[in-house]
Amino acid sequence: MPLDLAPAPQGRRSGRRVALRLARRDIARHKGRSLLIVLLIMLPVAGMTGAATLYQSSQRTPGEIVDYELGATQARFSTLPVPNSESLQDPLNDAMVASSSGRSDPDFQRMDPFDALPKGYDVLPQRMLQLSAGVGEARVTLQGSEVDALNPAFAGKYRLLDGRAPQTATEVLASPGLMKRFKLAFGQEFTTSAGTFVPVGTVRDSAASDGNSFLYLQAGQVPEGMSPGPPSPGSASYYLVGPEPVTWQQIREANSKGVGVLSRSVVLNPPPPEQRVVAGSKPWDNSSAAVARYATFGLLGALALLEVGLLAGAAFAVGAKRQVRELALLASAGAESSTIGAVVTSGGLWLGTLAVAAGAGVGLGGAAAVVTVVRSTGSVRLAGLHPDVLLTAVAMVMGLAACIIAAMVPAHQVSRRAVLGALKSGRAPAPKGWRTTVAGVGTLALATGLLAAGWLLGNSTRDPDRRAEQLPLVVTLLIAGAVLAVTGLVLLTGWLVKRLTSRTQRLSLSLRMAARDSARNLARSVPAVAAVLAAATLASAALVLSASQLAGMRESHYWGALENQAYLPLTVDQPFAADGTRQPSVHADPAALSAAVAAALGTVEWTHPLTAPQGLLNCPDGPAAPTLPARTETSSCLMYALAKPAANECPRTPQGRMTDPGDWRCRGSLVGEQPSDRAILVGGADDVRAVLGREPTDEALAVLNAGGMVVTNPVFVAEGKVLLQAQDVRTQIPSAVGPASVHATVRSDSLAAAVLEPAVPVPYYGVVSPETATRLDLRPAPAGLLVQLAKYPSEAEADAASAAAAAVYRQPGVPFRAEPGISQGNQWMTWSIVAAAALITFSAAGITTGLSLADARTDHATLAGVGASPRLRKALAGSQALFTSGAGIVLGTLAGSVPAVLLVLSTDMRTALEVPWLHLLALVLAVPMTGAVLAWAFTPSGLPLSRRGLL
Questions:
Q1: What is the pLDDT of residues 638-664, one digit of tens each?
Q2: Fewer CB within 10 A of the end CB, N or C, for the chain?
Q3: How far apart are CA 88 and CA 274, in angstroms?
């Protein structure tokens, strides 16, 4: 009877079932290796899921906005800072102007929010107060809120945390931060500028952190004459209670009168985009920033999954080599090569499915725990738990794909292995190098093309509007190029290892043996180098992106002074008298103020008094009267500023975007900012050094002494001169550039200029000498005291300094505030990224080194058998780790830094490119050396006895 060689019905399906069954049994038999692979895939999926969930949780939903801001009320009416009647607010934010013509209308009269309230509602008022309280012998400032916080209409906005509701005229509620700051207990009297009260309960404001110092007062508890002056913008707001919603049309009408409205119905059902724009303007667009942020996450996420895929591939390669004899026996029994390869691939499917499911669960669970803890502590950084279903699904699919692909490479190698050779030897076959090398060259060339295309497209136009439209495509090209670059380098790793081996003749014995062993056992060394390469790529990309983002924050930050520097005025206005008249100002002695602050704080490095032209003095409110000059012997309405030449105006598009943020005309001190009365200082070299943080040059001192001016920004200089203008603040005239209004200039003086840019863009035009100030009749007078601290003060230290200053001023009106810079709250981010990057790279080096040493145990046994000393074997293990980690870290640093730099240069971050050379160098040197030391230390001197393999 002839043999029937036709394929069995449903044979492929049966082969897949066999492969799945065998893979499951192999996983159960090698639990340690399987758990390692699961953890390698689970951790990045959990990290990406948790990060996406936490980011979405930091964004308030419309439902949370109305709950946290309005409670159960219908709307809130408050002051909106608009320049004219042609302005519209953001529907979800009643404090932000989203669209405006930009024209400043001097005749525009803002309406009191109370007068704009519609009829038919119950009104719950809220008034913000500036209070003071005693700390020792002096007083410090705190916030007060006159509101019925426990009214049922505020359910969701305010919540009683502890204690009870007030029942008498002296009982009040407080925030937990105030109770902690002043060390108060329930029932203890607390004296403030509004009176003496007894806190009986603590309140949580859902829109503010518990750490803020707030005192909640009832109507009637605030004395009538406590704040006789005009209310500040935003000090009073009114909440409407009623069944009828407040519509978008009503909000537009209120905006035209300078009143902002947060409406429950509008927040939950925002108007279409075309109704959010006033004629002649376009809404504020921050889409490019969002795309840049997601691009950063996308690049790091893609590199993270590529890294763990390679790590898992190294683990699968070791497992497949250990499984070679079993699979060869299966092949000798008649199994097809596809079935044999499917056994290893099925292991990746099993482990990947388990890993991504566990990773998503761990990520969501961790994010939920973080949100719960953060919300329970009273922080408003996270609004609620908002899982990102789309990004979580993408992370799971990418993780599963990475695991399956990681298993496919060793599966392909094992399936092509000759049966007889597999049964005779335990060594895995060396792959055909030329095909892999050709594929690597092609992939690297494609990656280079994508990176170049992304960079060229991102810099193809100077129009920021067009650049914002191209940003998604640019980011996609750069991320794809970065991933392909890593893939191409991985494919070329074998060729590079062989080239490096041929250059090791002059190295020590252990290093020569490690290099030749790596070249001979490419199946062992290539996965190890590739895994470290991918980890280093992720680490270096994260370092460059985080450093550039930090530099961008430093550029966009408003610097009131140098970092950790405080400014205390030497002239302080007193409160209005009971009859509403202005009282004489208080003039503080700089020596006494300096001594008091230094005694209160132990971190004062130095103090320096500043002198400035006479500022505003008894200037009457309202427009300028024709018969009253801008300055008299007893009054002054002059503000001094530098004119900006028309040629130095920052170029902008019709939509208001800067044509080139890196343009020198768009950067530096007082570009686009309103000057203060101390923007021009009078002094010498010591003053320049104190306010600018730079040592004055010989040229600057020569110009200063010759009657010129040391200028902080070249944008105000034309042909070596600046134009010093005295402006009457009572006047408003149309600006020569743009729709804004400016003050009328009553005097102009041309001065020679020497540019000395400060360490950071502090709000000073520059410095003139006392002789120049006298010649120009600037009437210099003591302005303030600079206090330089060694570190940023804590809240208690700031209270102590405020108390010391208040004792000198003899009134509690001036708080002590130091310039925090951007490093106080963000420097930890850079170092945490450095630590995470180092940890990832160290773990990759450790895992791959351990896998390589486990695979090389037979080689070490052979060395021991021929008489090699334990010292040589330990040195060989360290050299192998040094070789693989060193090659991987160098290639990875290049592969991660270059795409990150191109990504920064092709987005809005391009003006803030910063490459952290020191951190990268530390990573390149520390990882190989640490891996070598650990491999040397953990390699045992003796080897366990092993059974002899069959020949």
A1: 888 898 888 888 887 665 666 776 778
A2: N
A3: 12
Does residue 537 contact residue 896 with C-beta atoms inside 8 Å? yes
Answer yes or no: are the C-beta atoms of 180 and 228 closer than 8 Å: no
The rounded distance, in Å, linking the Cα atoms of 5 and 34 is: 38
- What three-state secondary structure class fits 202? strand
Cβ–Cβ < 8 Å for 178, 90: no
Instruction: For residues 81 and 89, give the distance between their C-alpha atoms in angstroms, rounded to a whole number.
Output: 10
Helix axes of 324-332 and 287-322: crossing angle, nearest 10 degrees:
70
Token readout for 908 is 């809005």
CA 504 to chain centroid: 45
Q: Which two tokens stand for residue 787?
A: 């206090």
DSSP state of 60: P
CA angle at residue 247 from 244 to 250, to 5 degrees?
A: 110
Scan for tokens 């010093």, then name that residue: 724
CA distances from 917 to 291, 920, 921, 924, 927 (A): 27, 5, 6, 10, 16
Specify the 3-state DSSP secondary structure of 220.
coil
Instruction: Give this prediction's pTM.
Output: 0.65
- Paired strand residues for 608: 786
* Structure letter (DSSP) for residue 379: -
Whether the CB-CB separation of 786 and 562 falls below 8 Å is answered with no
**Residues sharing a CB contact under 8 Å with residue 590, sequence separation 6 or more, in sequence order:** 570, 607, 609, 782, 785
Q: Are 280 and 102 in contact (CB under 8 A)?
A: no
- Kindly state the tokens that stand for 322: 């250990």
User: E strands of 181-248, at which residues?
Assistant: 190-192, 195-205, 214-217, 236-241
Beta bridge partners of 606: 788
For residue 640, give the nearest of 784, 782, 779, 785 by alpha carbon: 779
Per-residue confidence band for 873, with pLDDT thresholds at 50, 70 and 90: low
Q: Which of 456, 484, 474 is nearest to 291 (CA)?
A: 474
CA-to-CA distance for 374 and 365, rounded, in angstroms?
Answer: 14
Burial of 112 (0-12, 13-18, 19+ CB in 10 A): middle
| Residues listed for the chain | 951
* Helix (H), strand (E) at residue 726: strand 721-734
Cα separation, 123 vs 381, in Å, equals 30
| CB-CB contact of 353 with 20 (8 Å) | no
Tell me, what amino acid is at 696?
A: P
671, 556 Cβ separation under 8 angstroms? no
Measured distance CA(533)–CA(483) in Å, rounded: 12
Alpha carbon distance 740, 726 (integer Å): 19
* Residue 165, SS3 per DSSP: coil
- What is the C-alpha to C-alpha distance for residues 291 and 883, in angstroms, rounded to an integer? 39
DSSP string spanning 538-567? Answer: HHHHHHHHHHHHHHHHHHHS--SSSTTEEE
> 3-state SS of the chain: helix, strand, coil percent to 5?
50, 15, 35
Find out whether 238 and 126 touch, Cβ atoms under 8 Å: yes
Task: Determine the Cα–Cα distance for residues 798 and 792; give it in Å rounded to an integer.
Answer: 9
Would you tell me how many other CB atoms lie within 10 Å of the CB of residue 580? 9
676-706 residue pLDDT tens:
778 899 999 999 999 999 999 999 999 999 9
CA dihedral 784, 788, 792, 795 (to 10 degrees): -40
Distance between CA atoms of residues 241 and 925, nearest Å: 66
165 torsion bin: left (phi>0), alpha (psi -120 to 50), beta (else):
beta
* 3-class secondary structure, 263: strand
Q: CA 246 to CA 474: how far, in whole Å?
A: 43
Q: Span 898-919, mean pLDDT? A: 78
CA 789/CA 558 separation, integer angstroms:
19
pLDDT of residue 164: 92
